[in-house]
């Protein structure tokens, strides 16, 4: 079995371009030219075309990648000078050979003030230099494209590694905060704490498995958020008002980065409830006009000095993940309204 030959797009472009160059002289004949005149004209022009093709691929295949890209510029220039000299001599010989084999039967008008022969040498050399420049430009363009692809691939690998590291940090951080909440619940309502452990298992299933994906369907993430809110409600008193406005369809499969909003919710329940068990938390999540919006507003009760819960890395992770997962496709507004003493955080993800 012979080896199967396949042509990629670059090969087809080369064949098409050189086919057009070879065919171009066919469009330059005059109406009164004989078949011999046409053949002579084409064969003489063929010598120049083959010289262009030779020096193009001499540079394209060998001189540019092996010498120019290896910083052997002097040898690159020297070899091209030698190649141009040889090809100009070959074109001149070919021109005279075709003229002798196919003499022009038409009378030639006398030429006054004919240019010296060396000008033709300069013209042919100049054309070959242009072809060398074209070969160098194409090769450098291809090299830049490959370097850019390699850079993009390296950036993708770095981003994936950083995201994986962030996810690995997020899971224990989320688990620690949730266990602290259940621990506090055990002290005054063991029955609720037992139910909370069952709810925690549902949350961990999403946090441990779905969080390993770059994106999950929006309805799954919303289901996780609702379970988390239900879990948090178990440990708060009736004096805490929790208002939720989640306007998401049950089958909304819009992709979203998993657990991207969880740190905002954790902060709302951590800082939105006073020592006396009072507070207000408003949670709004919508998906409209190709934008996913999560807005959380809560009363501001700063963490006490003796409160060692949390490590403060949650919001830092949110900022890093937003930049990695939604570069130039998100806005994040946050701050404290001093008039109402409420902290707000609003993230808008656009597609």
Describe this structure in words.
A hairpin with a 2-residue loop joins strand 4 and strand 5. It is built from 8 helices and 7 strands, in the order H-H-H-H-H-E-H-E-E-H-E-E-H-E-E. Helix 2 packs antiparallel against helix 3 and helix 4 packs antiparallel against helix 5. A 5-stranded mixed beta sheet has the order 2-4-5-7-6, with helices on one face. The protein starts with 8 loop residues before the first helix and ends with a strand. The protein is an alpha+beta fold and 351 residues long.
> What proportion strand?
5-15%
Radius of gyration: 37 Å
Strand arrangement across the biggest beta sheet? 2-4-5-7-6
Helix count equals 8
Shape: rod-shaped
Total beta strand runs: 7
* Main sheet record: 5 strands, mixed
End-to-end Cα distance, whole Å, is 51 Å
User: Which class best fits the helix and strand makeup?
Assistant: alpha+beta
For the structure shown, list the relevant keywords:
351 residues, alpha+beta, 5-stranded mixed β-sheet, two-stranded antiparallel sheet, 59% helix
Quick description:
Helix 2 (35-68) packs across helix 4 (117-188), helix 3 crosses helix 4 and helix 4 (117-188) runs antiparallel to helix 5. This protein has helices at 9-23, 35-68, 73-101, 117-188, 190-208, 218-233, 262-271, 314-325, and strands at 216-217, 240-247, 255-256, 279-288, 291-299, 330-337, 342-350.
Topology summary:
Elements lengths: L8 H15 L11 H34 L4 H29 L15 H72 L1 H19 L7 E2 H16 L6 E8 L7 E2 L5 H10 L7 E10 L2 E9 L14 H12 L4 E8 L4 E9 L1
Parallel strand pairs: 2-4
Antiparallel strand pairs: 1-3, 4-5, 5-7, 6-7
Helix pairs in contact: 2-3, 2-4, 3-4, 4-5, 4-8, 5-6
């Amino acid at each position: 079995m012979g080896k199967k030959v396949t042509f990629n797009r670059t090969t087809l472009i080369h064949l098409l371009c050189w086919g057009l160059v070879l065919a171009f002289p066919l469009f330059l004949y005059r109406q009164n030219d004989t078949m011999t005149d046409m053949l002579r004209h084409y064969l003489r022009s063929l010598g120049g075309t083959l010289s262009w093709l030779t020096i193009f691929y001499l540079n394209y295949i060998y001189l540019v990648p092996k010498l120019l890209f290896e910083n052997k510029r002097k040898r690159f220039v020297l070899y091209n000078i030698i190649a141009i000299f040889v090809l100009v001599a070959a074109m001149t010989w070919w021109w005279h050979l075709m003229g002798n084999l196919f003499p022009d039967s038409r009378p030639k008008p006398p030429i006054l003030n004919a240019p010296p022969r060396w000008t033709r040498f300069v013209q042919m050399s100049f054309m070959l230099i242009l072809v060398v420049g074209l070969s160098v430009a194409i090769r450098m363009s291809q090299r830049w494209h490959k370097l850019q692809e390699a850079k993009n691939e390296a950036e993708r690998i770095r981003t994936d590694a950083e995201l994986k590291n962030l996810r690995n940090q997020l899971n224990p951080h989320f688990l620690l905060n949730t266990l602290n909440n259940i621990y506090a619940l055990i002290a005054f309502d063991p029955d609720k704490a037992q139910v909370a452990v069952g709810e925690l298992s549902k949350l961990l299933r999403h946090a441990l498995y779905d969080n390993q994906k770059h994106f999950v369907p929006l309805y799954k993430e919303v289901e996780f958020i609702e379970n988390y809110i239900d879990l948090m409600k178990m440990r708060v008193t009736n004096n805490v008002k929790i208002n939720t406005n989640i306007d998401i369809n049950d089958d909304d499969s819009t992709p979203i980065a998993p657990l991207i909003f969880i740190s905002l919710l954790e902060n709302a329940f951590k800082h939105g409830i006073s020592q006396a068990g009072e507070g207000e938390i408003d949670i709004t999540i919508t998906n409209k006009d190709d934008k996913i919006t999560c807005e959380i507003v809560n009363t501001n009760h700063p963490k006490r000095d003796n409160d060692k819960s949390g490590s403060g890395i949650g919001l830092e992770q949110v900022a890093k993940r937003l930049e990695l997962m939604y570069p130039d496709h998100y806005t994040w507004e946050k701050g404290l309204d001093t008039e109402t003493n409420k902290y707000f955080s609003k993230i808008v993800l656009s597609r």
